[in-house]
Please model this.
Amino acid sequence: MLKLYNTLTHKKEPFEPRESGKVRMYVCGITAYDECHLGHARAAVVFDVVYRYLKFLKYDVTYIRNFTDVDDKIIKKSADTGQSCEAITAKYIQSYQEQMTRLRVLAPTEEPRATQHIKEMVGLIERLIANGLAYASGSDVFFEVRKFRGYGKLSHKKIDDLESGARVEIDEKKKDPLDFALWKGAKPGEPEWDSPWGKGRPGWHIECSAMSMKYLGERFDIHGGGRDLMFPHHENEMAQSEGVTGKAPFAKYWLHNGFVNINAEKMSKSIGNIRSMPAILAQWDPEIVRYFLLSNHYASPLDFTDESMTNAREALRRFYETLNRFYQTPDGAETPALPLAETEKVFQTSLDDDFNTAALVGGLFDQIRILNKFLDEGRRPTAAAKKELVAGLQRISAVVAIFDADPAEFLQKQKDQGIQKLALSEKQINDFITERKQARLAKNWQRSDEIRDTLASHNVVLKDNPDGTTGWEIKIA
RNA sequence: GGCGGCGUAGCCAAGUGGUAAGGCGACGGUCUGCAAAACCGUUAUGCACCGGUUCAAAUCCGGUCGCCGCCUCCA
Model:
């Protein structure tokens, strides 16, 4: 039985979709004005696992993740660079999709864009005005927060507390400082659309109401996004959506993923420690990044450091090293006593418990130890045993999308990437190995060890195999 | 100031009432010419601290301290 932590109720609840067998899910995507970063990747990967797990549970899932392609930041970037807003958003949307593909994030059912739903937004705003929850002021339209009963129920805030926070900007066009824009009158040089209130553009929150309702209906099951979106974005989105329909809850379950920190510090533009995905994926294998992102419960903070990434890499290397050994061992007549079925049970129990991906890793490494021991004893697995292991891993991977690479390819890829960071070429390494082999045959241990130390100082670690060959791998700390 | 979260070994991290998974690292051993990898063993008599409930608590309750997030655009 799947249980999930619902921000709205503040409790872990059994998951019961509104319509049996079907799940409708909406997740806030990116504002396309810059390269996506690790935080975007975390949200995408986390909800990708949610999506995949719901499908694994045989739900018919409709998953919507939007692109915000009209926004102050985009307009500013356009003004700063001279590029059109369309060119900017097209560029970063494409880049986002490329990065997500590399991270094995499945494409959602639809990826609607705000600018393609202006008409729907205008329709919602008109209904809000008709319902007495919004008012036009000049060429702007605002949502009147105090008219909506229940404002603050998602982020668990009281209107009066917010008011005293006093960080809300004063705008003489608003009746109340907390009121937020549904529609903004056009300023020269900005993108604009026709509306009953004159030319203008939508406020930030209304787009998600419009797109979620269009694709999922007036009420749906799961709404996700980063913690920071809880307030004000999701609070406002919920208020205006329920304000339009008069039906609650707008989304039954609200899920919020935690932040990524960089060396224990919040990742932010002002600190200047943003890690863009193109940069990260140039350095780390996507599977390592994905493993890292899933090595922690989705709602907890996650600290990106050299050490945490090295740990992730080493864990996967160990995993694939063993698998590679296992698969390459000639077929025999024995079946290792792998508790695969049990692992799969643990896997499902873990994910059932609020998508706890961190808990499932342990079980997998138990198998690794068992496999290594089996092989260390010189035993040979049957072809069927090999196939069964592959199949089992694929069943798990269908949800987490890690642990199912071809082991030899994974290791080779790590090596290939590593070589580029070395001061040595592959040929130089092989020449050293050849020379060392001669030295070893001559029992010239001094020269042999000298060569090994030299290579080690270049982060190349040698491994003498029982058959006389010497393998090597790159170990950068 | 308001609201929320967290504090488990050197580091990362599961575990929400039944006696501390797993990964990285370290140390000892087996293997090896020596290493590396792998395997075996050791590495938290204790889960921030103090009280309480219970036959039993990392897990529930109360308090203390510390860290963090949100309240402003942000995944």
In short: The longest strand of chain A covers residues 220-226.
